[in-house]
Predict the structure of tRNA-uridine aminocarboxypropyltransferase.
Amino acid sequence: CSRPQKVCLCPFLPVHPLKVSTCLYIIQHPAEESRVLRTVPLLAACLPPDKCKILVGRRFNEDRYPELATVCRNPNTLILYPGAEATNLEEVAVMSSSPSVMIIIDGTWSQAKDIFYKNALFRLPKQVQLKPSISSQYVIRTQPTNTCLSTLECAAVALSILEKNQSIQETILHPLQALCSFQLQHGAQIHHSKEHLLKNGLYDKPMPKNKRKLRRMELLVNNVKI
């Protein structure tokens, strides 16, 4: 797991990398590299190196990333990014039996949005999303809503759907659960989502002056999908 001995999570990782046919491309915003409690290294430790490829950056063009460009033009490639144009992944998995390639953007929601809309390559693959049926277990980091998932959680759910194997999700989530448990035992606090805090009058930060951000918070309180 590449963590110090005192906080080693190796006992919670699979003994051997999971055998999957799906290949993940993790597009990671540079700011994620400096975060202490990242989930992508745990994800990579669960999968074979050739099934989890991590590319760090903000801008990706065909000249600098010819392999990625080829992947994006592959009809079997999917990009996990929710929105009006996205199809539920379960529907896509039922219609396709071919091994898939999935692109997942790793960053905050604003960073992911910036990467998605400012890189034309990422609008070539079929856009898919996960049904908001589970709550995030990454409780040591604040999420916008209760159903916003970390990159590792998204990958775990997506792989279990594409590979038609629920145990994959359980195996990948195991080190995340251990990480959160360890942090909570050593002084970390549970981070409720902004949605939860706003609805229960617990949001203690100054409200944003930016009208757009303020509007987003109002939508969260009123259960409007954003």
Observations:
- Helices lie at 40-46, 66-73, 89-95, 109-117, 151-162, 166-185, 194-199, 211-221.
- The first strand starts at residue 23 and ends at 28.
